[in-house]
Amino acid sequence: MRPRRLFRLILGRTRATPGELSTPEIHRAILRAIEHSTPQVLSGDYLDVGSGAGRLLQLIAARYGVRSFACDYTDRLMNVQGQPVDIVDLNHDPLPYVDNRFVLVTCAETIEHLERYRETLREIHRVLKPGGIAVISTPNVLNLRSRVHYLTFGFPSLFGPLAVGEQDVHSPRGHINPVGWFYLAHALLDAGFVDIKLSVDHYQRRSFISLLFLLLPIRLAALYAYHRELRKYRTINAQNEWAVRKINSRDILLGRTLIVTARKTQ
Q1: Against a cut of 0.85, is the pTM above it?
Q2: HEC states along the chain?
């Protein structure tokens, strides 16, 4: 194998191609997460935040028979005939729904476009019924390819330099907020959610090569850092230890997209 080829395999590609951003694959992963977190029969209203073209909304409505609602920054993206879209600026406005309304809320590939994603998660918690389920997906900025990209270039994978003063950063082109696993889990807990569960859409094959070279030094360095945080800085406690320990799990090191489910308490 040529040295350049080996080096690229270790690092992983730093620029995604359209085929890698397989939205149908993310949708299938979200459907699996819903199946594992909810009863087979859902009764009530369902909301898709950042609904885009509406394909995920369409799939969930067809499978569960729920009444679907969509909201996004524009209604021009919606391709599902007859599906209205409630227009909302998630960086400044609350969700336009009453408290405790929806049995299920999805938010796929949206929070990375927002300046105030924590407020959006609190709003999702507010509009869910007690016992309702939220499913959030976002690029996994802590997989091995992304970590190496950050080390070499200073940006996680799928994130990069933004033009100053760009007015369109909240469109589907603008990834402005890389949200790692721990901070997403923390934000959900802080919003009042419980039963946080992590899954991914798929493992990146090229990351297995990186894993051979990087797993041992990552584990050794993480062990040192973990005990330092625990004993010296005391930032790790019973409430967040489980989330910290997942940072170097197989799903995080190899997974492309985070799929995180959370439940509103009864």
Answers
A1: yes
A2: CCHHHHHHHHHCCCCCCCCCCCHHHHHHHHHHHHHHHCCCCCCCEEEEECCCCCHHHHHHHHHHCCEEEEEECCCCCCCCCCCCEEECCCCCCCCCCCCCCEEEEEEECCHHHCCCHHHHHHHHHHHEEEEEEEEEEEECCCCHHHHHHHHHHCCCCCCCCCCCCCCCCCCCCCCCCCCCHHHHHHHHHHHCEEEEEEEECCECHHHHHHHHHHHHHHHHHHHHHHHHHHHHHCCCCCCCHHHHHHHHCHHHHHECEEEEEEEECC
